[in-house]
Design a protein that fits this description.
By secondary structure, the chain is of the alpha+beta class. It has helices spanning 6-12, 18-26, 117-124, 144-152, 189-196, 227-234; strands spanning 4-5, 30-32, 35-36, 43-44, 51-53, 56-57, 65-70, 98-99, 108-114, 132-139, 155-156, 159-160, 165-170, 175-182, 201-209, 212-213, 222-224. A hairpin with a 2-residue loop joins strand 2 and strand 3 (35-36). Helix 1 packs across helix 2 (18-26). The chain is elongated, with a radius of gyration of 21 Å. It binds uracil.
Length: 235
């Protein structure tokens, strides 16, 4: 294997994110062939070089990929000072995994958990434009004009959102249901977009990530992604 950036090797070994690994290097916690490397850029060959973090040799972990149907009240970060239930606690394995992107605590639906930071960075990068589909319960009715506005994109503090595909699943006086697919992943984007066109969200559920769906996965359940799904995401 050719030389690679040291922080990339450390992240691939599951030590931490690339940025945190850069910090570890600069702090002098990383050795390559028994020599401290505390400057960037730094390169190593993960097959030939002996790489240690805080004196311990790193091992390349097998990559894990899960799909969780997140319940309400569960959060997508790996540490929470308020002690709320975390998505990673619902997928009991002996490795440090994390959520790819995030869903709000109140949002239910599917989220990928993995220890593959490379894939996670790729999937959350707007450039790759992976579409995510949500089903939202709306208080009251939805007009054709509101649907058109959603389709064209809505102005938020960060700028105008991209085009969305939108389907009204149920029209009702008291409550309506809408399906919306977006390619960006701004913070609380669906809730803010719907609010931006005057639609109050009562419930929000993510049903699809690209072509991976929540089919067969009850709330709180998880499964491993199949080899075909992993290959699709990597492509
Ligand atoms: N958009 C939201 O508003 N919330 C989510 O959890 C995901 C997308």
């Amino acid at each position: 294997m050719a030389e690679q950036r040291l922080q990339k090797i450390l992240a691939a070994a599951g030590i931490d994110s690339r940025r945190k690994c850069e910090e570890l290097i600069l702090e002098g916690a990383v050795e390559v062939n028994n020599k401290t490397v505390d400057r960037l850029p730094a390169f190593a060959d993960p097959e030939k070089d002996v790489i240690k973090v805080n004196g311990r040799k790193i091992h390349f972990e097998q990559k894990e990929y899960f799909l969780l149907n997140k319940p309400k009240g569960v959060i997508c970060t790996n540490s929470d000072p308020e002690g709320r239930r975390k998505a990673i606690d619902l997928v009991p394995i002996d490795k440090r995994i994390f959520c790819v992107g995030r869903l709000d605590a109140e949002t239910t639906g599917i989220i990928i958990l993995t220890n593959d930071s490379e894939l996670s960075n790729k999937l959350t990068h707007p450039k790759f434009g992976l579409s995510k589909t949500y089903v939202a319960g709306i208080k009251g009715e939805i007009s054709a004009a509101q649907v058109e506005k959603l389709k064209k994109g809505v102005w938020l503090a960060e700028g105008k959102t991209g085009r969305a595909s939108v389907k009204v699943i149920r029209h009702g006086h008291q409550e309506s249901i809408i399906e919306i697919s977006i390619k960006q992943g701004l913070n609380r984007q669906v809730r803010r977009t719907l609010a931006g066109v005057g639609l109050p969200v009562k419930s929000l559920r993510r049903t699809k990530i690209g072509r991976i769906t929540d089919r067969g996965l009850g709330i709180g359940q998880f499964r491993k992604l199949t080899a075909a799904e992993i290959a699709y995401l990597k492509k």
